[in-house]
Every structure is written in C-alpha cells, then in structure tokens.
# Entry
Amino acid sequence: MNNGYKTSGACLCGDIQFEAELPSNWCAHCHCTLCRVAHGAGYVTWVGFESDQVHFSQGDGRLQWYESSPGAQRGFCPRCGSTLFFRSLRWKGELHIALGCLTRPIDRQPQANVFFDKHVDWMPIDNTLKQTDG
Ligand SMILES: [Zn+2]
Ligand SMILES: [Zn+2]
# Structure
C-alpha cells in the first residue's frame, strides 16, 4: 500500500541524513531509564524498521555508536550529539529510529508504552495505549 513511499530524517546539524522505506514495523514510547538519559527526555518515541529499509544519503561514515548495555548500541552524531538510532542483538536485523529525528510522517501512530514500570511521574502519559513492562 505504501510501496515506494519513504520517510526521511536528519540529526540537528544535518551532517547525518537518511531515508527509510515504509511500511514501518511498529511505533512505541519507551520509558526505560537508558532512553530517558540518552535523549534528555521524559520518554523516547521509537519507530522500528528492518535495517535494509534505511538508506543514508549523507554521513553514515560519521555516525558513532555507543554501547549503552551489552549487545545494544545507540547511534549518534558526533558533531551535534543528536541520538538517532538504536540497534540490539535482541532485535537482530532491525534499526530503531527516534521519531523526533524524522522530518516526514510515518505510516502509524504510537501503539504502546513500553518499559512502563520505569516511567517518570512528571510526564503526561497516553493511558489509552497498551502498556508493557521491561
Ligand atoms: Zn549532527
Ligand atoms: Zn528505551
């Protein structure tokens, strides 16, 4: 249905730019402590793609990866510090993109609050979504 439609994204400084082919696999708000600190935000909204759906138009050689827990890495721009990506052995073959770094719409709304047991009490929450812990 969305065949050929792409979304696109970039870091704050624009050094890293990419496109992702739709459809996406899922979209969720992650309330885990690692996401919160890495992004300096109450929670982080991620959209999941197969890795081969994501293509860099600029800067993939500059992208740096930080191993935030064993087997899990966060991709960021070394110039401006934007945290763009997440990949993990737990979700092999997938690349998760921070929705806030996309510059065009995707094909779905956030569906769930995950790691909800870690959520902070100072952030408004959409309680109509499915909630999972861990
Ligand atoms: Zn940048
Ligand atoms: Zn998280």
Notes: The chain has one domain: 6-120.
